[in-house]
């Protein structure tokens, strides 16, 4: 049996919940749903944050997590590398199979978004590489991967989106940074931020 046809059952199984959800109710009802991400307690997800210091306090790391502005009615993101139906020589890689299987774990809730901000307190420029950013919300390839921080300045990464669903209001995030070939790893735990001190949520 050609390799392409062997992955069809996997694809169907991975996306069956999404098709079912998409078929429940009319399009007008989905449009009118409130764009609210529910936390583990069934209430709107609060802004969450975590802070930590690296390399003897010369580098500050700050993580923020908030609800996405997306609406309900979960739609899976496209799977890059999926062979076309008319592909005569489909290439089924282990990465493609892993991606298909991982879709089964995606939550029907709207996605959440995270940002990582790095701030230098050093007296000279820091060339920082973001080696690892891993949690129950996903193992992210942070972009940009490398940043140059002049003294006193901050750099914020591109938003990281997770569709795995928030199941706790204590979310450990393992962050590994590298400067001059030396790695340093810390676990920063995301927790709700006091609403009185919340900065504006980004669009």
Written account of the structure:
With 203 residues, the protein is of the alpha+beta class. It contains three helices and ten strands; from the N terminus they run ααββαββββββββ. Strands 1, 2, 3, 4, 5, 6, 7, 8, 9 and 10 form a ten-stranded antiparallel sheet that branches. The longest helix has 20 residues, at 3-22. The protein is globular, with a radius of gyration of 20 Å. Mean pLDDT is 74; it is low at 3-36, 70-76 and 196-203.
- Biggest sheet layout: 10 strands, antiparallel
Helix content: 10-25%
Number of domains: 2
Question: Which CATH-level-2 architecture of the largest domain?
Answer: Sandwich
The topology string of helices and strands comes to HHEEHEEEEEEEE
Radius of gyration, whole Å: 20 Å
Low-pLDDT stretches are 3-36, 70-76, 196-203
- Span between N and C termini? 48 Å
CATH topology of the largest domain: Immunoglobulin-like
**CATH homologous superfamily grouping of the largest domain:** Immunoglobulins
Give the rounded overall mean pLDDT: 74
Number of helices: 3
* Total number of strands: 10
The CATH class of the largest domain is: Mainly Beta
Structural class: alpha+beta
What overall form do the CA principal axes indicate? globular
Classify the beta-strand content into a percent band.
Answer: 25-35%
């Amino acid at each position: 049996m050609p390799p392409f046809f062997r992955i069809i059952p996997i694809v169907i199984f991975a996306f069956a919940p999404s098709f079912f959800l998409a078929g429940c109710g009319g399009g007008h009802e989905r449009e009118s749903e409130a764009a609210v991400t529910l936390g583990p307690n069934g209430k709107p997800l609060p802004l969450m944050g975590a802070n930590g210091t690296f390399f003897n306090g010369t580098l500050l790391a700050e993580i923020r997590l908030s609800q996405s502005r997306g609406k309900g009615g979960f739609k899976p993101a496209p799977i890059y590398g999926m062979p076309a139906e008319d592909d005569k020589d489909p290439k089924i890689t282990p990465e493609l199979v892993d991606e298909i299987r991982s879709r089964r774990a995606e939550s029907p809730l709207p996605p959440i978004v995270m940002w990582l901000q790095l701030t230098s307190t050093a007296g000279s420029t820091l060339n920082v590489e973001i080696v690892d950013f891993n949690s129950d919300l996903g193992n992210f390839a942070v972009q940009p991967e490398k940043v140059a921080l002049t003294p006193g300045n901050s750099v914020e990464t591109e938003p990281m989106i997770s569709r795995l669903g928030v199941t706790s209001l204590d979310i450990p995030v393992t962050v590994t940074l590298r400067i001059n070939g030396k790695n340093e790893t810390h676990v920063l735990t995301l927790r709700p931020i006091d609403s009185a001190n919340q900065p504006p949520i980004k669009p």
